[in-house]
């Protein structure tokens, strides 16, 4: 019995040793991988810092040269003016001295010296220095200060990013804990489209008391016959019509589909994946007539809807038939943030848990609306859209267009705010 136990222990020990040998080999590979990756990253960072230092050194040299050129130009003019004034003063002093030294009995000599003094006093004055370069010359400190501020802000932002912090300065772990704590205190809200939704943490400068991560289900009763639905989350435009049943809410002239969800107060956020083709994402009034003509029925081509369109080359915001082209790279994930309290709709490009504001539709009281037809249209009619109950809306423009609803990236929930 003891021999059997000993044999078993030896076998177990041998197996464990073999497993440890394998895991040690794997750990060694991991150590080497980490060291190699760190070395490469360190080399890249050193190279980038060297390039950045070279850029700063070049800029410093240019600014110093600019100061020297300005100093040289201004000094030449100022020194010439100084020399002229000193020579004139010496000449006048000499004429005055000569006149004082004339004997009172020598009338002719007196008249000659008096005339010489008079001529010297009547000589044209030298023009005052212009110093045309003075403004540029004295802007060097302002320019370098601006560069320093930009660098400081960029360094802080990137430092926060490296430390795993979000836009509002909290780490993702801290944000997640805040979400859980607020959910425990306030409870979890349910969206009308079904599913569980979580509360957004309030930004210190923006009150978001009713913000929810909105769970969207596509409404098959609204889908155009050339849109194929995949469950309640996916939609693709097809060539062959689908025999959907008759429905008074179905689009018949535009390849569009709506969410079943209604929005009429508070704030809502959802995300859409652009899988292929030309897609428009937006909101539409509940009472919009789905039988409108193609020109009037498309999202954003009327006053009852607005959208963000990807046309294969650019993003374009649409409202009331007016458009605004957006110069941003392609984002596969689009976040949509609807704020009833602010009467605002914001579209975000979402990538790697980072959010880039693509366009915010909101009334602006600044002068730019007077010169921008799109903003002018927003200023005059966009607010009236929030008098309606709204629904999420989607327009699949090209025959290969394909989109998927959500799911939300939880890190983005924590950094959501109006910018």
UniProtKB/TrEMBL annotation:
Residues 196-412 form the B30.2/SPRY domain. GO terms for molecular function: zinc ion binding. Keywords: Metal-binding, Zinc, Zinc-finger. It comes from the Eukaryota. This is TRI47 protein. The lineage of its organism: Eukaryota, Metazoa, Chordata, Craniata, Vertebrata.
